[in-house]
Amino acid sequence: MVSHLRAYRIYLLSLNQCANSHHHNQPPKKRSAPSSGPAPKRARQSKLAKENDISASEENEIKETVEEFADQKEGVIPRGDVRKALVALGLDPTDSEELHSIIEAVDPTDTGYVPYEPFLAVAAAKLRSRSDDAMAAEVDAAYRLFTRGSGGVITLNHLRRIARELKEEELGDEL
Questions:
Q1: Is 27 inside a domain boundary?
Q2: Mean pLDDT across 44-56
């Protein structure tokens, strides 16, 4: 079952990916006259994200997950929490062999901790290897959580309910 937070993240990522895929298929837009207000800041892709061929939002999701699982040391995940972190990202290892090889790759010296960069590299590789069908199934599951299976469009009430359930008070006020 997809958690509400995971569903919200999946939905936001799917919107970002849809926007990015449509952007590549359209001709360049003409620049309009500069507006009087400041332009909203867009997350820039870091060097690490570029090296691993992931978007800034995907990198941010991975970073947030590492921060959630980091306990004693900043920026590292205890070796025993690698599977949980991957599951939280929706990147479940297929079997114990894959999990073992991932752990060997991210903690080759058996320190008991996995630094951010190797974890990001593994998570990015798993993100890139997901099939379109698997991603569509995740988006569908997230959509059903938003609409509680009622179908139709996601309404403002759906968004407010999800914001309340996630305790995203700031987001609820913006809606």
A1: no
A2: 87
Rounded distance between C-alpha atoms, residue 175 and residue 159, angstroms: 8
102, pLDDT greater than 90: yes
C-alpha span between 119 and 66 (Å, rounded): 8
Whole-angstrom distance, CA of residue 84 vs CA of residue 91: 10
H helix intervals, the chain = 4-25, 47-51, 56-69, 82-88, 96-106, 116-129, 132-147, 156-165, 169-174
The pair of three-digit structure tokens given for residue 172, joined into one six-digit string: 């609820």
Q: Token digits for 156?
A: 């403002």
Q: What is the CATH number of the domain that holds 81?
A: 1.10.238.10
Number of domains, the chain: 1
Residue 32 located in a structural domain:
no
Residue-range definition of the domain harbouring residue 112: 4-22+45-174
Is residue 78 in a domain? yes
pTM above 0.85, yes or no: no
The residue assigned the tokens 């630094």 is: 115
* From 55-69, 86-100, 150-164, the region with the lowest mean pLDDT: 150-164
Specify if 31 maps to a domain.
no
